[in-house]
């Protein structure tokens, strides 16, 4: 269905319509649809708007990838330190039969929490030079792991 003869809409309407169907569409595809509907009017504006829309789409893809990297790094950091805590503290806890056995496990948690916070800041600072999303994940994970391990410290120290 041709809209030739009708005043053309904002080029972004057509550009977004095409990019929604195919995010890798080329300018030539958009121009062909534009020419079919509206003739050869406003092709310069169409090209400018297309270039800006594609640049914006690329930026959004990069941000999404960076966000996933941050979240994955946080999860790995926290899981690694909880596993470290279990590997170091659980054997002594399982062999204990007396009251107050949770204290060594709790102290192990607080020591790991403080230590990982210190070296996490150092590692994050070094990594930030070449990979900011990973560094952000380390910084966030260090704080979250310190909080979690502190809570575990007081929780298991009071366990009977």
Please characterize this protein's 3D structure.
- The chain is mostly helical and 160 residues long.
- The chain has 2 domains: 11-58, no CATH class; 66-157, no CATH class.
- The protein has 5 helices and no strands.
- Helix 3 (43-95) runs antiparallel to helix 4 (102-127).
- It is rod-shaped.
- The termini are far apart.
Topology of this protein?
Elements: H1 11-21, H2 27-38, H3 43-95, H4 102-127, H5 132-157
Could you give a short description of this structure?
The chain has helices at 11-21, 27-38, 43-95, 102-127, 132-157.
Radius of gyration: 28 Å
- What ranges have pLDDT less than 50 throughout 5 or more consecutive residues? none
Run of helices and strands: HHHHH
Mean pLDDT: 86
In DSSP terms (H or I, runs of 4 or more residues), the helix count works out at 5
| Fraction of residues in β-strands | under 5%
Strand elements, count: 0
State the major sheet.
none
Shape: rod-shaped
Give the helix proportion (percent range). over 70%
Number of domains: 2
Helix and strand content put the structural class at mainly alpha
Oligomerization status of the protein chains: single chain
| Gap from first CA to last CA | 77 Å
Which key features would you list for this structure?
mainly alpha, 0% strand, 160 residues, single chain, 80% helix
């Amino acid at each position: 269905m041709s809209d030739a003869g009708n005043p053309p809409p904002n080029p972004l309407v057509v550009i977004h319509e095409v990019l929604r169907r195919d995010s890798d569409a080329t300018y030539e595809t958009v121009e062909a649809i534009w020419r079919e509907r509206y003739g050869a009017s406003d092709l310069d504006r169409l090209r400018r708007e297309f270039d800006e829309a594609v640049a914006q789409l690329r930026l959004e893809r990069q941000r999404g990838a960076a966000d996933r990297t941050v979240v994955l790094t946080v999860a790995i950091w926290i899981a690694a330190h909880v596993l470290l805590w279990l590997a170091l503290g659980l054997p002594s806890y399982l062999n204990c039969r007396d009251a107050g056995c949770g204290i060594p496990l709790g102290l192990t948690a607080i020591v790991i929490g403080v230590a990982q916070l210190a070296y996490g800041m150092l590692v994050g600072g070094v990594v930030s030079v070449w990979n900011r999303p990973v560094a952000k994940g380390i910084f966030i994970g260090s704080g979250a792991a310190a909080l979690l391990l502190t809570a575990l410290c007081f929780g298991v120290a009071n366990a009977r």
